[in-house]
């Protein structure tokens, strides 16, 4: 097989593997609802349950990136997926809360597959096609949406315990497929003498911290909302689990699939412009989504006049869809920043930024749950996200837009003197 044929085969089978990994990673977003009911969990405990896989999937990202450079993506990816199979299977037999948390940690390793596949796929393509190849691979994020189509159908037809059994079988089959249709090239191996601690030194760079904060919204917020939305629809609008999951997929699907398009836009208009617009549009959507269902009574001359203000399920879903599109573009634009600014250190920086994004996905669902238990207001989840996006907008303005403006002013002034 030619090198080009091998590269295409690897891109296809790796994207499939990543989609399955992401589907498994997001599993609690659907089956967490019957588990919550069976165990009588409050919103904070439910948040912790859904966040457990995100924790381990994020923490393992940096070491996985190092191992991929050292041993090659093919073996690391295959071993990683194989380890999760027994954990997924055991989920069907767990009975206590702590057992679900432990199993969640193990199957969470699937979420680390992003930092294996990204360098593995990229190295098979020429420089000018790497952004697009990474974008296609990154579209495996849409596994979050696949989970929302597949899991509720299984829950309704056979009960929730069927979901882990089916997913374990799918994962096992994917390991076999991946192994038969992927290749390894010894020329792609990189030997790092950097220790884990040395890799984390890049966090001293304020720019890296800024990209971490951006990614904790566009990726962390995406993961958190993908996990949180099914039960939000069930609670807020009184829908059944299948309808809720279908509507929640309106957020997960564009959030995954459009990532490649976001990469193309960042190549064309630059990472700064795309990120700036992403943050503004997200800010507006989150402001509207934050508004709780409100009944107002105004005392008029003719007696009390009552209004109801609040989003209905249609408007809510449209805003959520726009937010999903923004996050997809933002995920791509943050990685474009990294490849522009750190061409020689892309593995390390993207590992650390990916870790920050994942930690956002871990912390946010727990905070969503805690806020809901404290205030009793469901839309408090969006209020929190709104605040985080504010921070990003201010940060971009102070570090990028102002420098640009002062440079423009100087150029205009210099022109005037001539």
Model description:
- This protein has 418 residues and is mostly helical.
- 79% of the residues lie in helices and 3% in strands.
- The protein is built from 19 helices and two strands.
- Helix 12 crosses helix 19 and helix 14 packs parallel to helix 17.
- The longest helix has 38 residues.
- The radius of gyration is 22 Å and the shape is globular.
- The termini are far apart.
Short description:
It contains 19 helices and two strands. The chain is mainly α. Helix 1 (3-25) packs parallel to helix 8 (127-138), helix 2 crosses helix 3 and helix 14 (241-257) runs parallel beside helix 17.
Any descriptors?
79% helix, 3% strand, two-stranded antiparallel ribbon, 19 helices, mainly alpha, single chain, 418 residues
The total beta strand count reads: 2
Uncertain parts: none
Mean pLDDT rating:
86
**Terminal residue distance:** 62 Å
SSE sequence, one letter per element: HHHHHHHHHHHHHHHHEEHHH
Largest sheet: 2 strands, antiparallel
Report the sheet-strand fraction.
under 5%
Total helical elements: 19
Structural class: mainly alpha
Helix amount, in percent? Answer: over 70%
Nearest-angstrom radius of gyration?
22 Å
Strand neighbour order, sheet with most strands: 1-2
**Overall spatial form:** globular
């Amino acid at each position: 097989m030619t090198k080009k044929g091998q590269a295409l085969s690897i891109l296809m089978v790796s994207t499939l593997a990543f989609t399955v990994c992401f589907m498994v990673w997001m599993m609690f977003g659907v089956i967490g609802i019957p588990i919550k009911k069976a165990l009588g969990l409050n919103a904070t405990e439910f948040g912790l349950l859904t966040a457990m896989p995100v924790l381990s999937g994020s923490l393992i990202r940096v070491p996985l990136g190092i191992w991929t450079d050292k041993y090659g993506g093919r073996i690391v990816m295959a071993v990683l997926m194989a380890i999760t199979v027994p954990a997924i299977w055991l989920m069907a037999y767990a009975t206590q809360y702590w057992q679900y948390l432990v199993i969640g940690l193990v199957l969470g390793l699937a979420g680390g597959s992003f930092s294996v596949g990204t360098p593995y796929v990229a190295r098979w393509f020429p420089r000018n096609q790497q952004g697009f190849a990474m974008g296609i691979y990154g579209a495996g994020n849409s596994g979050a949406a696949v989970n929302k189509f597949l899991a509720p159908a299984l829950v309704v037809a056979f009960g929730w315990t069927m979901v882990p059994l089916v997913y374990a079988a799918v994962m096992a089959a994917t390991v076999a497929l991946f192994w038969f249709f992927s290749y390894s090239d010894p020329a792609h191996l990189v030997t790092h003498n950097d220790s884990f601690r040395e890799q984390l030194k890049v966090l001293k760079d304020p720019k890296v911290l800024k990209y971490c904060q951006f990614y904790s919204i566009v990726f962390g917020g995406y993961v958190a909302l993908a996990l949180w939305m099914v039960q939000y629809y069930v609670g807020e609008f009184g829908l059944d689990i299948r309808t809720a999951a279908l509507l929640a997929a309106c957020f997960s699907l564009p959030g995954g699939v459009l990532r490649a398009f976001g990469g193309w836009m960042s190549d064309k208009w630059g990472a700064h412009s795309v990120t700036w617009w992403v943050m503004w549009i997200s800010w507006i959507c989150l402001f509207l989504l934050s508004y709780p269902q409100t009944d107002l009574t105004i005392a008029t001359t003719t007696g009390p006049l009552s209004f109801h203000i609040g989003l209905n399920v249609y408007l809510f879903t449209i805003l959520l869809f726009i937010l999903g599109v923004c996050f997809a573009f933002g995920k791509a634009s943050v990685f474009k920043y990294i490849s522009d600014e750190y061409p020689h250190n892309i593995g390390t920086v993207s590992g650390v930024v990916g870790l920050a994004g994942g930690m956002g996905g871990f912390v946010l669902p727990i905070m969503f749950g805690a806020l809901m238990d404290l205030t009793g207001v469901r839309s408090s989840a969006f209020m929190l996200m709104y605040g985080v996006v504010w921070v990003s907008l201010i940060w971009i303005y102070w570090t990028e837009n102002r420098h640009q403006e002062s440079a423009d002013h100087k150029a205009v002034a210099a022109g005037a003197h001539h």
